[in-house]
Amino acid sequence: MTARDEVLARIRTALGRSPAGGAPAGDQVPRRYRSNAGLDTGALIGLLTERLRDYGTAVRRCPPSGVLAAVGEALAERGARRVVVPPGFELPGRYVPGVTLLADDRLSPGALDAADGVVTTAALAIAETGTIVLDGGPGQGRRALTLVPDYHLCLLQAGQIAGIVPEALDRLSPGRPYTWISGPSATSDIELDRVQGVHGPRTLEVILIGP
């Protein structure tokens, strides 16, 4: 037996495969991890809000009828006047006083950087980790859209909140390109000085829409 044959034989043994091939049946793989947080909507909202604020993310609550007003208030407090919106983004009233909404028709990185921010929706959020997940679908846009502008305002429905990661994965399609966001972009140098806005938006704000 050559060294190569010995290595491959050990790999087959570790994987539970015979030299003839074949893999262990899927039902033989133990799955004893939690698949659901078992939390109601109110508890999910509370946990997600706590996690987001721990990361330095501002969180606003509003009913479905108050989305336009909440967006207007958030942008006004930020001083944002020129804001990019992705394809498929729909806002009740479609007009925010004092704000120009720029449709992202493959805007250049320079144009994105010159904008005051971006407003998107999301695919879902994970309460336990405080993570916002984007899948590039309608209302969310391409990855550059939420990485280049310095301010990201994200609209999230209360029904889009999953409790834990396995629960979220059950809702997501494996064929989509995902961006997972846990708070504003930040990093620390060798002296552990925290700097925000290095790899994405310096400021992340979330509007939670629901009861």
Outline the structure in words.
- The longest helix has 14 residues.
- Strands 1-12-7-4-2-3 form a 6-stranded parallel β-sheet, with helices on both faces.
- It has 2 domains: 30 residues, no CATH class; 173 residues, Rossmann fold.
- It is of the alpha/beta class and 211 residues long.
- β5 and β6 form a beta hairpin.
- It is built from 5 helices and 12 strands.
Main sheet strand line-up: 1-12-7-4-2-3
Low-confidence stretches: none
Rg, Cα atoms, Å: 22 Å
Residues in helices, as a percent range: 10-25%
Going by CATH, the homologous superfamily of the largest domain would be: NagB/RpiA/CoA transferase-like
Number of domains: 2
Distance between the termini: 68 Å
**Elements, N to C (H/E):** HHEHEEHEEEEEHEEEE
Main beta sheet strand tally, sense and closure: 6 strands, parallel
Number of strands: 12
CATH architectural category of the largest domain:
3-Layer(aba) Sandwich
Shape assignment: globular
Task: List strands and helices in order, with pairings.
Layout: H1 3-15, H2 41-54, E1 58-62, H3 67-78, E2 82-85, E3 100-103, H4 109-114, E4 117-120, E5 124-126, E6 131-134, E7 151-157, E8 161-162, H5 165-171, E9 179-181, E10 186-188, E11 194-196, E12 203-209
Question: Summarize this, please?
Answer:
By secondary structure, this protein is α/β, with parallel strands linked by helices.
Features:
211 residues; alpha/beta; Rossmann fold; 2 domains; six-stranded parallel β-sheet; four-stranded mixed β-sheet; globular
